[in-house]
Amino acid sequence: MPSPAGFADSPVSRVLAQPLMLGLFLPIQAGGWSASTLPRSTDWSFDYNAALVQRAEHFGFDLVFALSQWLPKGGYGGVFNGEALDSFMSLAAMTALTKRIILVATSHVLYGPWHPLHFAKFTATLDHISQGRWGINVVTGHRAVEHEMFGWQRIEHDKRYELAAEFLDAVQQLWAQPDNFTFAPALSNWSLNGAFVTPKPRFGRPLLVNATGSDAGIDFAARYSDIVFITSPNGSEIEAALQALPAHTARVKAEAAAKGRAIRTLINPMVICRETAAEAHAYHDAIVAHGDEGSFHRFDSDAHAWRGGSAQRTQAAARAVGGNITIVGSPEQIAEYIVRLHQAGVDGVQLSFFDFQPDLEFFGQRVLPLLREAGLRH
Fold this sequence. Notes:
This protein is an alpha/beta fold. It is 41% helix and 15% strand. The two termini are 30 Å apart.
């Protein structure tokens, strides 16, 4: 069915007209994105995150994202103690508090609560309320503990994408069909019999996103997504990432082109910025020095990474800071890194910060004007 990018007057078309999309990755979960105990304001509460969204909108950001997670009591431990808002519900509420920015909620489409009819109706309603500013980051879930919370065993990786494809096929038909719709999936345990959804999305359908690096996930993105959320194949260190990203982004776009579609890439940098490079690196080092070992014991990595070898300590430091990639420096250096990411085939950045409120303010005041000067923002 038609993408919202095919409508010249849609909010998505407005965003895609920017040379570089600019987004904010909200900290709706305790600890934000950084496993560090260094004092900061970052908070998972609705009021804190709503204020971030409104400030990002003031600065002209295009998108905000929020993650979705289902964790047992205690979360991952340490600062990641499991306190978190629901992505779908919190961003739905923010449609009433914003006017221009696109809100992208992460949804595990295979988990128990969702039936395609619910999903199609709820998302079409939010598209109507927001006047086309609603998006979905479609995820299939990968942690066994999350699957088990809903009463079943973790589904094999590639099959998850096959099930998600059936789900989205049905949802898109519900968004598009002018009459009642019946559908019997081959793999899934739900069905539709004379189903109908109103209102219809204003611009074809909501924005669709997925985050992946796997073959099956990239194939899914090429068939369904407007934007694919990528990670660096070479880890979080910026120079290593910049070496790998041109080939990676080219591959993602080529897979979509082979299916007759255009897709944009988005990456999540953790931005650590101060007036001087020395101040920024000191801030980075303080975050790492306060790394919270208690936040690591439920990850797949070694729980004692802080006391391990060089590679383990590097991994632990990266988790203390957070983000898919890390960029550290003065405003001029941060702007230059973002220019280089764009040159590497990245179409947008979805920013994270350690101390969100002051760091977002500093970015908006000091870095954003430099991106405009560089021609990346209108």
